[in-house]
Design goal:
Mean pLDDT: 79
Bound molecules: 2-acetamido-2-deoxy-beta-D-glucopyranose
Largest sheet: 7 strands, mixed
Strand order of the largest sheet: 3-2-1-4-11-9-10
Number of strands: 11
Radius of gyration: 23 Å
Shape: globular
Distance between the termini: 33 Å
Low-confidence stretches: 10-56, 113-123, 385-391
Helix content: 25-40%
Structural class: alpha/beta
CATH topology of the largest domain: Rossmann fold
């Protein structure tokens, strides 16, 4: 989102995502024609079970913003950027029996620095790099194939994911530093950036990687430490949080029980059974969500790894994976948009976070945010919540 100052002076917030721009006045009169170029494209209907991945987007790689296609809003000066991004490429959350994949997360360092809190001695005193060690005995001693190989925790940002955020940081630098002179070339004051992440490791690392290349080679004064703000997990607002808002569980149970969703599950049950037999997921825990199967398959797809096979030589196929993606997309669209309960669910699930962004805008307009120019929030799509079996 961009907060802009127009002449004549009014302030609007513009939401930019892909090529979609919508301007909404947050103070002063309507901006008039400036916002009429706005077009909303995200509400395209999704035909039942049969839709393609939207043009130009694949789950594995979103497109990057670019200085060459960035067009400034006429008669307006950029005042504040609020950037909300998802984490990059990650490892699977679900570990299947007989794992034969290898994931690497130790080829790129993030900036996990230790600073002394006392401002008079604020200099960096050392840096740490967290290293995941998959012990050599993994696969032996009764722990056979309990974890995949390599150097990653489950659900962690991979080296590929770090590079995605380096690239994003670099593209943002070309826009906000080089083209617009909006952000300074060298970061001299940490108050310019507000960085918030969920407590989830991959979202912290994504923001670190992004800022790491927005200000590459540490073009940051040596004593500038950028605070990484996180809320305690129990009151996190950047994703649906049933622990903080129990009504979310009721919403999910109602959505799952609906005739439309039950028809969908029934229709796709043979595929689910076949894939569970192939992957050795002999569990009834995840029969109301496609997200666990998706997690196993799409992470492999994004890395060109072969799909799982079972001991009878039956393997998941590319066609299976495409149908799983359709099913997961259906599930997601149903949950967030198409169910009669979606409006309440999204309000309860994400309204609080949007309220925080709105307050930040208002606080900025009122002159209460000091030197703030860039607010970065990094989040996962959802926590690990099957549609019905919510803890
Ligand atoms: C802290 O950093 C400043 C600026 O780089 C440097 O001049 C100073 O010597 C450093 N202090 C210590 C204790 O390392
Ligand atoms: C392998 O998967 C196929 C297809 O789901 C299934 O029919 C078969 O029983 C599975 N074999 C084993 C050993 O689980």
């Amino acid at each position: 989102m961009h907060v802009l100052r127009f002449s004549p002076p009014i302030v609007v917030a513009a939401i930019a995502g892909c090529s979609v721009v919508q301007a909404t006045p947050i103070s002063g009169p309507s901006p008039g024609p400036q916002s009429s170029a706005a077009q909303i494209t995200f509400n395209t209907p999704i035909p039942w079970y049969n839709f393609d991945v939207p043009h130009g987007y694949t789950y594995c790689q979103a497109s990057y913003p670019s200085a060459s296609t960035y067009t400034a809003v006429p008669n307006a000066e950029l005042e504040l950027v609020q950037l909300v991004v998802r984490h990059g490429d990650r490892t699977p959350n679900a570990i299947i029996p007989h794992e034969d994949t290898t994931w690497t997360c130790d080829g790129v360092d993030e900036d996990t620095y230790l600073h002394i809190a006392n401002p008079s001695a604020k200099n960096t005193t050392g840096s740490f790099k967290q290293v995941i060690e998959i012990p050599k005995w993994n696969g032996k001693f009764g722990f056979e194939n309990q974890f995949y190989k390599g150097s990653c925790e489950s659900g962690e940002l991979t080296d590929k994911g770090k590079f995605q955020h380096f690239q994003l940081g670099s593209q943002l630098r070309s826009i906000y530093v080089d083209k617009l002179n909006f952000l300074p070339k060298k970061l001299y004051d940490s108050d310019i950036i507000h960085f918030r992440s969920t407590y989830v490791w991959r979202t912290k690392n994504s923001g670190e990687s992004l800022i790491g290349n927005l200000y590459p080679g540490r073009s940051i004064e040596s004593n500038v430490a950028i605070p990484l703000h996180t809320y305690p997990q129990s009151i996190e607002t950047m994703h649906e949080n049933p622990a903080a808002c129990p009504k979310i569980k009721t919403n999910l149970a109602q959505m799952t029980a609906s005739a439309q969703y039950q028809n969908f599950l029934k229709d796709q049950a043979p595929l689910m059974k076949r894939l569970q037999d192939i992957m050795g997921m002999h569990t009834s825990d995840y029969t109301t969500t496609w997200y666990v199967i998706l997690d196993v398959l799409i992470t492999r797809k994004c890395h060109g790894f072969k799909y799982p096979c079972n001991s009878s030589g039956q393997c998941a196929t590319e066609d299976d994976v495409e149908q799983v993606i359709r099913n997961a997309n259906f599930e997601l669209a149903f949950k967030y948009r198409d169910s009669s309960i979606s409006p309440e669910y999204t309000r309860l699930g994400l309204g609080s976070f949007l309220g925080t962004l709105k307050e930040q805008m208002q606080s900025f307009v009122a002159g209460n945010t000091g030197k703030l120019k860039l607010s970065l929030s990094t989040r996962p799509t959802t926590p690990r919540l099957p549609l019905s079996s919510v803890p």
